[in-house]
């Protein structure tokens, strides 16, 4: 850590803490995740290192960039880019009940989908898609971060069971103790899109039992009619209760409501041909 000056602690989770630091080399602000490995079993430590290696492979304009990782005094440190525009959760709260224009919602949503596509195409699951993990640069570019890839570092299910934070984004299959899959990320994406349209969580309840019941039933208050039928229909599709009926991320990106916007971000976000029907996108998940 001698290369960095600590500025402040910006987060704490089951894995350890997140620190805002400044690089002594270039003065840039970065985020360092400090993960306490001393309490982990040997197998868990190996798993953590493997998953950091996976993070290091991701390079996409809409994914928070990994810089380096190292171990010191029983801690694993992961250095990532700092997003200076806050996160979508903060933006939603700042609206104070004034709904976002549909154009703005779709611009943010398309970029988030392109980030999810990048990881799903590499057979990686995010496991913790939520508005607090979707960051913005000061130029308004979306950056997906805070992967819960690791069951060791940050498990959504474990967080849900221990009730650390309210698990608004849990999919029906997770509530029923079924395995996490790529369609679980798609459900969470639906929760984020709903939140952008209503400024509220789709599934809310006074306790965990009632929340789980609502999620399993798939019952949520309607999206305001000021938004187009296509947008409201897209949310309904993402909230299909059975993972089999939910679209893959590539299918989501083929929706006509998103097609025109993809071109806006395509050149800088994903290297495929300019084919307007995205036929060149490899579908790894049917």
TrEMBL record:
Residues annotated to bind ATP: 33
UniProt entry tagged with the keyword Magnesium: yes
UniProt cross-references to SMART domains, sorted A to Z: S_TKc
Annotated catalysed reactions: L-seryl-[protein] + ATP = O-phospho-L-seryl-[protein] + ADP + H(+); L-threonyl-[protein] + ATP = O-phospho-L-threonyl-[protein] + ADP + H(+)
Coiled-coil intervals: none
InterPro entries the UniProt entry points to: Kinase-like_dom_sf (IPR011009), NEK_Ser/Thr_kinase_NIMA (IPR051131), Prot_kinase_dom (IPR000719), Protein_kinase_ATP_BS (IPR017441), Ser/Thr_kinase_AS (IPR008271)
Domain of life where this protein originates: Eukaryota
Keywords assigned: ATP-binding, Kinase, Magnesium, Metal-binding, Nucleotide-binding, Serine/threonine-protein kinase, Transferase
Names of the cofactor(s): Mg(2+)
A Gene Ontology molecular function term of the record: protein serine/threonine kinase activity
Gene3D superfamilies documented for this protein: Phosphorylase Kinase, domain 1, Transferase(Phosphotransferase) domain 1
Protein name according to UniProt: non-specific serine/threonine protein kinase
Source organism (scientific name): Capitella teleta
